[in-house]
Amino acid sequence: MIKLRILAVSVVLLLASAAIDGSAQNAQLASPGIDARVESLLKQMTLEEKIGQTVQYSAGFATGPSASNLTYDELVAKGSIGSMLNVVGAERTNHFQHIAMEKSRLHIPIIFGLDVIHGHRTTFPVPLAIASTWDTAAAETVARVSAEEARADGIDWVFSPMVDISRDARWGRIIESNGEDPFLSSALARAWVKGYQQSDLSKPDSVAACVKHFAAYGAVIAGRDYNAVDMSELTLRQVYLKPYHAAVEAGVATVMTSFNSLNGVPTTADPFLQTQILRKEWGFNGFVVSDWGAVGELKNHAIGDGPTVARKALEAGTDMDMEGNLYATDLAGQIRSGKIPESVIDEAVRRILRVKFALGLFDHPFTAVSPAYTPTPERRAIARKVADETMVLLKNDPVSGSAALLPLSPSLKTVALIGPMADDALNLQGAWTVTGDPKNVITLKAALSKRLGDKLLYARGCGLLSPEDSAALRGVTFTGTTSGPSAPVLDGQQAIAQAVEAARKADVAILALGEPTNWMEGEAASRTTLGFTGAQQQLLEAVVATGKPIVLVVLAARPLELKWAAKHVPAILQAWSPGIEAGPAVEDVLFGDVNPSGKLPLSFPRAVGQEPLYYAQNPNGRPANGDLSRMPHNAQEKMVSRYMDEENSALFPFGWGLSYTRFSYSQPTIDHAEIPMHEVTQNHQPVVTVSVDVKNIGSLAGTEVAQLYIRNTSASVEQPLRELKGFSRITLAPGETKHVTFPLGFDELNFYNAGLKKTVEPTTYDIWVGGSSLATAATTLKIIE
Ligand code: BGC
Questions:
Q1: Which of 18, 290, 308, 726 has a CA 20 to 30 Å removed from the CA of 554?
Q2: What is the C-alpha to C-alpha distance for residues 275 and 269, in angstroms, rounded to an integer?
Q3: Cα 573 to chain centroid, rounded
Q4: Is residue 301 scored above 90 in pLDDT?
Q5: Alpha-carbon distances of 311 from 251, 259, 345, 388, 579, rounded to whole Å
Q6: Is the Cβ–Cβ distance between 287 and 254 less than 8 Å?
Q7: Whole-number Å distance between alpha carbons of 785 and 781
């Protein structure tokens, strides 16, 4: 009997991320009960019905080029569509589901997928911002709320998390990622999957997650979206594959291929990735979907005509064709002629059906229509708490010899709020939200007006884009239906003069600057410069010239070049794209209601020419200044690895983030300074524990992210100068000390040797613990024969 799916909506702020039982999740997909149902259905299916299961169409709006324009009702009735994306809302999904369940011969439900990237109806900060919380429980909570809201809208499957290691700030999609580090990104990947899927896909408020984009999409050459990727298998395994693997271990039900080629093979047609690594090595037993149109785009990669590329993708292990429109047309003949064995399509169909059964779609295919969404106070509270945690205080200097500028004093008489991001709901919401509604966003201007009333002076100062930028972007077409930012904003000396005037009248000026998120962040939004867009830099310099104390709030979800600001502005808050609670969250931190605790999940460059920039660099034979490319270089040094016109180091390094209090770290200790190699085995058990005491030596309560880094000082294959291998978020009252421990075992100490085997060798590890990747408190661990 077909029942309505009733949602038990229970949003709780998850306090701790429980250990994830990935094997249980995978076992669910492989359960004998499900297998029996899959096999019995498969036996009844015609070849056309099998192929239908591998076909996905977008039947709402387009999130990629050349949307198909087909008669979906008919196709669903014929069993020619297995999945749809961009169909949102229970009325819409039920419409197609009724056709599938009642008119198609075998009554196989459609699985509805959607890009739920940083919340569904409730828009949270973008994923890169969430990564800067270093709080896996926060990521899990965001995923949980998103899953509940998505499922209430008829969505069974979300195209998230995106875990592409992102080390190049030119690449717009960096905002969707967890940043540059495999250890941090893996921890977050597990949390996102757990939040979406819980430990049971069949729960009425679980959705299937989709880890993407497999693989190494973040390493596109020159940071240009969709470009090729070329990297050694060693780096691939050591760095880039780790977060995808973590998601698979956490039981992720589906994987999405990427647009790029990897070492000459487009990933969508790469059996090494989809079959060898994903299925054989990692034991993944969900299904793989192509990225939008990626099967069709294999023709542009020039590896064959339509039938050839359809065959290559399917045989490689890409089970579902998203909007590529090739599986639908180019497989049947080849299977009938024996060119593609029928067992290949059977296997793809099995994998897809397994997920549909595990989600309970056959038993509960429909969704109860729920009332129109308005953000509840509970959800707003969660969004605000998460946004609070994402804020990274980059700089907070004293102003004219007195206390640090932030938090702002309650006795300020007049505050100027200046800048194009201050009241821009759409851009504060952040890029890449399908269902987020800017009307729900509380802007900085709204929040600060509420707090300060007449004490607040506001001046926009300039637009986010110059007229030239605007004109250029209006020429850009995305799907053929959209044609660029609707309202070009004119900058002018007059607008800047008004802002300067407001700053002059105020005790302090808050500058809210950023990037036009929907045009310069996210997919197809690569840049060759990383400065503020439009006249914002000019505005900043003009306001700084007033000599008034300035707080710069950076509302951009990628690292911008902040070199000028870092020199001339006393306080800088990196606020990313905070979502619906943007204004209140920025207000919380500026006025000290919340002590900032965010830490950068990637390195901020001094200049765009440093990109790709990341802390875990390998050593070289001519390190600058005799140091490991980490310290400012000595201007006398010529024949060393350095830039002639810039420091090597980041402006703000990975792991960086200040607080309104200060923390001190004791000398770390290790319970065994030497360990025989045979004790370091692949049993996931720690072999040593590093401990440190962290003390709050300031006068305010605060949260610190204690970070542990290692360096393998002598290995058969050169190893990075530092690698994150542990972190812990701790909250300390003034004067309080907490003892923090970091377990280390094979999982943390191993590396891939030249034979691409994970190994630990006799060596000494340098170990540092501290509040950023510049940590200096050190100990060592020796691995002996
Ligand atoms: C993006 C994916 C997304 C898909 C579906 C593609 O253009 O690369 O991340 O999930 O579209 O909208």
A1: 726
A2: 10
A3: 20
A4: yes
A5: 28, 17, 10, 49, 42
A6: yes
A7: 13
Tell me, in angstroms, the distance from the centre of ligand 1 to residue 291's CA. 6
Pair type for strands 686-696 and 737-745: antiparallel
CA distance 178 to 188: 7
Residue nearest atom 6 of ligand 1, based on CA coordinates: 292
pLDDT tens by residue, 326-374: 999 999 999 999 999 999 999 999 999 999 999 999 999 999 998 888 8
* pLDDT beyond 80 at 298: yes
User: To the nearest whole percent, how much of the chain has pLDDT over 70?
Assistant: 92
Pocket mutation for ligand 1, best pick of 56, 114, 175, 523 (most atoms within 8 Å of C-beta): 523
Calculate mean pLDDT across residues 292-321. Answer: 98
Q: How far is CA 547 from the centre of its chain?
A: 38
What confidence score (pLDDT) does residue 64 get?
73
Q: What's the rounded mean pLDDT across residues 74-82? A: 96
Residue 149 makes CB contacts below 8 A (sequence gap 6+) with 119, 120, 121, 122, 373
Residue whose Cα lies nearest atom 4 of ligand 1: it is 292
63 C-alpha vs ligand 1 centroid, how far in Å?
6
Q: What is the reported pTM?
A: 0.95
Q: Is 309 helix (H, G, I), strand (E, B) or coil?
A: helix
> C-alpha distances in angstroms, 74 versus 87, 97, 100?
16, 12, 10
Ligand 1 centre distance from Cα of residue 292 (Å): 6
Best of 86, 115, 164, 321 for a ligand 1 pocket test (most atoms within 8 Å of beta carbon): 115
Query: Where is 704: in which H helix or E strand?
Result: strand 702-712
Rg of the chain in Å (alpha carbons): 26
The answer to whether residues 503 and 509 touch, using CB atoms and an 8 Å cutoff, is yes
3-state secondary structure of 153: coil
Q: Which atom of ligand 1 is nearest to the CA of 258?
A: 8
Q: Looking at the annotation, which residues are catalytic?
A: 291
- Three-state DSSP at 288 gives strand
Looking from the CA of residue 176, the nearest atom of ligand 1 is: 9
pLDDT of 67 above 60: no
Q: Whose CA is nearest to atom 12 of ligand 1?
A: 63
**SS3 of 598-645:** CCCCCCECCCHHHCCCCCCCCCCCCEHHHCCCCCCCCCCCCCCECCCC
pLDDT band at 493 (very low <50, low <70, confident <90, very high): confident
Whether the CB-CB separation of 460 and 499 falls below 8 Å is answered with: yes
**Mean predicted confidence (pLDDT) in 276-295:** 97
For residue 703, give the nearest of 602, 783, 771, 627 by alpha carbon.
Answer: 771
- Distance, in Å, from the CA atom of 670 to the CA atom of 100, rounded to the nearest integer, reads 61
**Spatial contact of 316 and 275, defined as CB atoms under 8 Å apart:** yes
Mean pLDDT of 94-107: 98
Mutate to test the pocket of ligand 1, among 291, 321, 322, 526 (most ligand atoms within 8 A of CB): 291
Q: Report the pocket of ligand 1 as residue ranges, CB < 6 Å.
A: 63-64, 85, 115, 159, 212, 291-292, 523
C-alpha 258 – ligand 1 centre gap (Å): 9
Whether residue 557 is preceded by a cis peptide bond, meaning omega within 30 degrees of 0, is no
Q: How far is the centre of ligand 1, averaged over its atoms, from the C-alpha of 91 (Å)? A: 24
